[in-house]
Design goal:
The chain is α/β, with parallel strands linked by helices. It has one domain: Metallo-dependent phosphatases (Purple Acid Phosphatase, chain A, domain 2, 4-Layer Sandwich). The chain contains eight helices and 13 strands. The strands form three sheets. A five-stranded mixed sheet has the order 3-2-1-12-13, covered by helices on one side. Strands 4-5-9-11-10 form a five-stranded mixed sheet, with helices on one face. The protein has a three-stranded antiparallel sheet with strand order 7-6-8, with no helix packed on it. The longest helix has 16 residues. The protein is globular. The termini are far apart. The relative contact order is 0.17.
């Protein structure tokens, strides 16, 4: 059995199929871990959801910010924005089944075989492994539960931007979700900045990539994440941190990693969207 982790697909179904063919992925024998953002920006969000869902327990995906945005738009019965490309999902006859399945996906996951932690965006430096998984489950219960609509009504926003164990209510849940699905740069104290998106070295003074903060409590854990297409390389922190978003929808690659060996394989992707 081989376990492959795959970066942000973002509605690029053709490229996902091409990559699985190159991997010689066998759903009977192998497993997939997807780092979130299955949908949006690319042209085939519906087909991506159908494919990943069809793999059953042979595929695990953590939720990304675009996945949550789709769920929020559907739950709140809003019109799809012109910049979003998941209208195919909204109009699908199996929409309810697909969205129900997507909403059950976790915000963070621990691979039981390798112990690797998987999140879409990042992990606050104040959290250790156990706290990460506990808090992800706490917020995930709102997304998967019968009162998800209350969560989506409070999901959007950038505050609070610093963790405190005493956070309560929607501030607490929003911080958890923002950390796991939107974070890139933080201050040395762990305060999240949601504006800087460029490669390390381009950020304003006083900010660091979340995985380079001194004293980070998951520094000894192996972590796989996505969300950050401008990183410029995949492996950081001597191979303990792997960022697999290599800009599929922006004309980069869709990248897969053999979780056991660290071997990388990718396929080129035509540019579906322009940055900005």
């Amino acid at each position: 059995m081989t376990t492959y982790a795959i970066g942000d697909v973002q509605g690029c179904h053709s490229e996902l199929c091409q990559l699985l063919e190159r991997l010689r992925f066998d759903p009977v024998r192998d497993r997939l871990i997807l780092v979130g953002d299955l949908v949006n920006r690319g042209p085939q969000s519906l087909q991506v959801l159908r494919l990943v869902r069809s793999l059953g327990d042979r595929a695990v995906t953590v939720l990304g910010n675009h996945d949550l945005h789709l769920l929020a738009v559907a739950q709140r019965q809003e019109d799809v924005s012109p910049k979003d490309t998941f209208q195919d999902v909204m109009q699908a006859p199996d929409r309810a089944e697909l969205l129900s399945w997507l909403g059950q996906c976790p915000l963070a996951w621990e691979d039981p075989d390798s112990g690797t932690l998987v999140v879409h965006a990042g992990i606050p430096p104040q959290w250790d492994r156990a706290q990460l998984l506990d808090l992800a489950a706490e917020a995930g219960a709102w997304i998967a539960g019968p009162e998800a609509g209350r969560f989506y009504a409070h999901m959007y926003g950038n505050k609070p931007d610093l963790w405190d164990d005493g956070l309560k209510g929607w501030d607490r849940i929003r911080f958890i979700v923002n950390s796991l699905t939107r974070m890139r740069y933080v201050t040395p104290a762990g305060r999240i900045d949601t504006k800087a998106k460029g490669a390390p070295g381009s950020q304003p003074k006083g900010l660091k990539p979340w995985f380079e903060v001194e004293g980070r409590r998951t520094a000894q854990d192996r972590v796989i994440f996505g969300h950050w297409s401008t990183l410029g390389r995949v492996s950081w922190q001597k191979g303990r941190v792997w960022g697999l978003d290599t800009g599929c929808v922006w004309g980069g690659k869709l990248t897969a990693m053999n979780v056991e060996t660290g071997e990388l394989m990718g396929c080129d992707c035509p540019q579906q969207r322009k940055p900005g």
